[in-house]
């Protein structure tokens, strides 16, 4: 087990001025009892094992509100990037199917986590929602508008409500601009406050994120990684957004600072009622922040559900493998030691993904049907959906496919009605009151 010593607390502290109550715990101030534990551990020379331990010391994981209305409803969202041939004509010779028909909802003031291996389409999803890209297909309902269809001009008034926090605090801030200019830019662009009120607003925001408001005229290179990420967060908060897309917001940071930034985000969420789409590799971080989690593989959501179900009862072989690969040091944060499942081979190319189930080239339980028919994202619990013909808990996968009834195919995936095409229903973003119980092999409900 690798112990991570807390070096000095985030050097944010050295630059920190007075803070709002919301920012206090996150910044590790000794006013917060949990943070005091961390400080005491540091002073006594004890080491803190992991993000999970650090974060749990500070704040409890946020809870799911099943009655919350969705602030964003994403349905059958697709992004295909054209692949051009080299040469003068630059003909389109194929498409990278970066996101291919995903559906989910982000609850008001809640958060949903997006996890999956590198290249599975997480950042592309975030960029679609913030409309840095225009989707190839699908819809994204936000405040009564389908933002997938709006032009850049039509998007402008809505853009302030959907903001993004980027992964790399070193490259996401312009090194030639002062912090005041960076955080204040959205206010000028959207013409929200008179010029003479920009500075006080910037200083207020710096204070909210635990930075010294007097440091508005400093440049990004005068701050540490953790402090820079706080500047990025202040910039994202400038316009009072309803939804924040946080793309790997802590993965570039040291583990002790990760916990502080995550706790800051949680405080801000509670204080300002911000909803989050939270993208991360780190399953311990996602578990702490998100009561609902979607697992992506090669452009598709393969499993989605509430935190307890996803971490304790994953039904998709990919989720089972992902969870088993979390290093020992993080096991406590995701619920104990697990059997290690090795995923063979690399992720296939999204230009030419495998037929049927995209995971089949790496799946140890794949059968004939998996190559022929794409598994639908089937609801198998109150708040649990999975896209697998043989969905089931680890070592309890059924021997016969569970999807034949809805798809009208036999066990090998051939249509039973004699037709040649199989219509896989597009995934729904919400949950039904009834579902297919895998253990009972029957439809059940509340
Ligand atoms: N602008 C683009 N043009 C062409 N292909 C792209 C573009 N952006 C992303 N891709 C491709 O789309 C796929 C998904 O990329 P994306 O960045 O969304 O993955 P990710 O899940 O965020 O990965 P990571 O965890 O490494 O950040 C990858 O195959 C990537 O190469
Ligand atoms: S559908 Fe088949 S290949 Fe895909 S995850 Fe399930 S068992 Fe594996
Ligand atoms: Mg990414």
From TrEMBL:
<dbReference type="InterPro" id="IPR027417">
    <property type="entry name" value="P-loop_NTPase"/>
</dbReference>
<feature type="region of interest" description="Disordered">
    <location>
        <begin position="1"/>
        <end position="35"/>
    </location>
</feature>
<protein>
    <recommendedName>
        <fullName>ABC transporter domain-containing protein</fullName>
    </recommendedName>
</protein>
<dbReference type="Pfam" id="PF08352">
    <property type="entry name" value="oligo_HPY"/>
</dbReference>
<dbReference type="InterPro" id="IPR050319">
    <property type="entry name" value="ABC_transp_ATP-bind"/>
</dbReference>
<keyword id="KW-0813">Transport</keyword>
<feature type="compositionally biased region" description="Low complexity">
    <location>
        <begin position="14"/>
        <end position="35"/>
    </location>
</feature>
<keyword id="KW-0067">ATP-binding</keyword>
<feature type="region of interest" description="Disordered">
    <location>
        <begin position="408"/>
        <end position="430"/>
    </location>
</feature>
<dbReference type="InterPro" id="IPR003593">
    <property type="entry name" value="AAA+_ATPase"/>
</dbReference>
<keyword id="KW-0547">Nucleotide-binding</keyword>
<dbReference type="InterPro" id="IPR003439">
    <property type="entry name" value="ABC_transporter-like_ATP-bd"/>
</dbReference>
<dbReference type="InterPro" id="IPR017871">
    <property type="entry name" value="ABC_transporter-like_CS"/>
</dbReference>
<comment type="similarity">
    <text>Belongs to the ABC transporter superfamily.</text>
</comment>
<dbReference type="InterPro" id="IPR013563">
    <property type="entry name" value="Oligopep_ABC_C"/>
</dbReference>
<feature type="domain" description="ABC transporter">
    <location>
        <begin position="72"/>
        <end position="323"/>
    </location>
</feature>
<dbReference type="Pfam" id="PF00005">
    <property type="entry name" value="ABC_tran"/>
</dbReference>
């Amino acid at each position: 087990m690798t112990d991570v010593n807390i070096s000095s607390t985030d050097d944010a502290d050295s630059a920190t001025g007075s803070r709002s109550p919301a920012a206090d715990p996150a910044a590790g101030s000794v006013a917060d009892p949990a943070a005091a534990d961390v400080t005491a551990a540091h002073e006594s020379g004890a080491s803190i094992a992991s993000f999970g331990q650090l974060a749990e010391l500070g704040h409890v994981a946020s809870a799911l509100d099943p009655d919350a209305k969705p602030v964003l409803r994403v349905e059958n969202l697709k992004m295909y990037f054209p692949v051009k041939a080299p040469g003068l004509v630059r003909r389109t010779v194929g498409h990278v199917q970066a996101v291919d028909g995903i559906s989910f909802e982000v609850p008001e003031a809640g958060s949903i986590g997006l996890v999956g291996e590198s290249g599975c389409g997480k950042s592309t999803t975030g960029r679609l929602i913030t409309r840095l890209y225009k989707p190839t297909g699908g819809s994204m309902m936000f405040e009564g508008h389908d933002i997938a269809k709006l032009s850049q001009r039509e998007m402008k008034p809505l853009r302030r409500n959907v903001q993004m926090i980027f992964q790399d605090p070193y490259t996401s801030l312009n090194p030639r601009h002062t912090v005041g200019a960076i955080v204040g830019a959205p206010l000028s662009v959207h013409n929200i406050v008179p010029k003479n009120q920009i500075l006080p607003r910037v200083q207020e925001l710096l204070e909210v994120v635990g930075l010294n408001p007097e440091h508005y005229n400093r440049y990004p290179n005068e701050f540490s990684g953790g402090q820079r990420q706080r500047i990025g967060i202040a910039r994202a908060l400038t316009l009072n957004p309803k939804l924040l897309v946080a793309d790997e917001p802590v993965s570039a940071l040291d583990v002790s600072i990760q916990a502080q930034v995550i706790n800051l985000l949680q405080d801000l969420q509670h204080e300002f009622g911000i909803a989050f789409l939270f993208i991360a590799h780190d399953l311990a971080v996602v578990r702490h922040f998100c009561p609902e989690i979607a697992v992506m593989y090669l452009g598709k959501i393969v499993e989605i559900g509430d935190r307890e179900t996803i971490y304790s009862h994953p039904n998709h072989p990919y989720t089972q493998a992902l969870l088993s690969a979390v290093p020992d040091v993080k096991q406590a944060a995701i619920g104990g030691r697990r059997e290690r499942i090795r995923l063979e081979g690399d992720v296939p190319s999204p230009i030419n993904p495998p037929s049927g189930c995209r995971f089949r080239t790496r799946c140890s339980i794949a059968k004939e049907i998996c190559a022929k028919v794409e598994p639908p994202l089937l609801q198998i619990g109150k708040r649990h959906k999975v896209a697998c013909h043989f969905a089931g808990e680890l070592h309890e996968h059924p021997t016969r496919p569970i999807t034949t009834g809805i798809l009208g195919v036999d066990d090998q995936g051939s249509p039973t009605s004699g037709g040649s095409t199989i219509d896989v229903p597009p995934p729904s973003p919400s949950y039904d009151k009834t579902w297919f119980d895998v253990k009972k092999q029957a439809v059940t409900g509340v």
